[in-house]
């Protein structure tokens, strides 16, 4: 069964905004910390934002102050509001439930492509 489905990516100009969504299976979303990851071409996948089941958030330095992660537990949906986008934000964005520093709870979804370019 499909467990993680990301959407909302697209092409945007520098300085623009996008809102990503991740529909997750309840068994993954429930009571878990959830995170947004991204992978640029030729680069390893990196965690850019995470939110605990209690709503505490943390961000990578590269996106802090520009991105906002949120969750809707009733809908089992994770969001990432991305503002002031830069070309270096170009990547495929994925969601998952991080376990420790390197593991994740579920198989990766297909991701959603974000391209920041003029």
What does this structure look like?
This protein is mainly β and 118 residues long. The chain contains one helix and twelve strands; from the N terminus they run E-E-E-H-E-E-E-E-E-E-E-E-E. The strands form three sheets. Strands 2-12-9-4-5-6 form a six-stranded mixed beta sheet, with no helix packed on it. Strands 1-3-8-7 form a four-stranded antiparallel beta sheet. A two-stranded antiparallel ribbon has the order 10-11. Strand 10 and strand 11 (103-104) form a beta hairpin. The radius of gyration is 13 Å and the shape is globular.
Fold topology:
Blueprint: E1 4-7, E2 10-12, E3 18-24, H1 26-29, E4 34-39, E5 46-51, E6 57-59, E7 67-72, E8 77-82, E9 91-96, E10 98-99, E11 103-104, E12 112-116
Overall mean pLDDT score? 95
Q: Topology as H/E string?
A: EEEHEEEEEEEEE
Q: Please mark out the parts with pLDDT under 50 across 5 or more consecutive residues, or reply none.
A: none
Secondary structure: number of strands = 12
The chain-level structural class is mainly beta
Tally the helices: 1
Q: How much β-strand is present in the residues?
A: over 45%
Roughly how much helix do the residues carry, as a percent range?
under 10%
Main sheet? 6 strands, mixed
The spatial strand order of the largest sheet comes to 2-12-9-4-5-6
Rg (C-alpha, Å): 13 Å
Q: Per the principal axes of the C-alpha atoms, what is the gross shape?
A: globular
Distance between the termini: 38 Å
